[in-house]
Amino acid sequence: MTRRTTRSTPEGEIHFSASRFFVASRSTRHASRVFRTPWGWVGLSASARGVRTIILPRASRREVERALREEALSSNGPPSPLAPCPSPETEPVLRAARAQITAYLAGQRRDIDVPVDLSGGSAFQRRVWRAIRRIPYGRVRSYKWVASRVGGARYARAVGLALGANPVPLVIPCHRVVTSGGSLGGFTGGQHLKRRLLALEGSLAQLR
Which of 69, 173, 175 lies closest to 116 in space, CA to CA? Predict the structure, then answer.
């Protein structure tokens, strides 16, 4: 089991584990990468601290590039420059994320274990995202289950909003969160993609 601790800093949080750390900084230059998979075109952006954005599979490279630009403009905090070419700092992060996402979509990998920079999220959103990251491959949980881990059932609606703001789907597997009634619920990539991801993980039978 990986040991992890968190401590506050003026810039946000520093998360430590046996294999990685990231600083929640709002001033780091970001780099992006767009690549093709059998599921479609995927986009990434990263700071030196970790992956900041994942654009789920889309039909064309242009769609993904546009989504990355929009994400960079809409992110919280002061605008950060988005460089199309990786730097020596971001290259290892982008390379690892691309390899792991490609393997995951091919059914050859169960988890995507790359550092992430979640500085654009609120403290509540980060609590929700940490809870979702603990949902194992091949399992689903309800919005109510997530809410019970971040403050109680009354937060179920806020949990749904936090899922919609998740900047790194797949790494934070919000597709594994479904309604208490067992239906799919929402997903930023659309219900068709959510169903496909759950089918890949073999968890569709858990829906009612």
Answer: 173
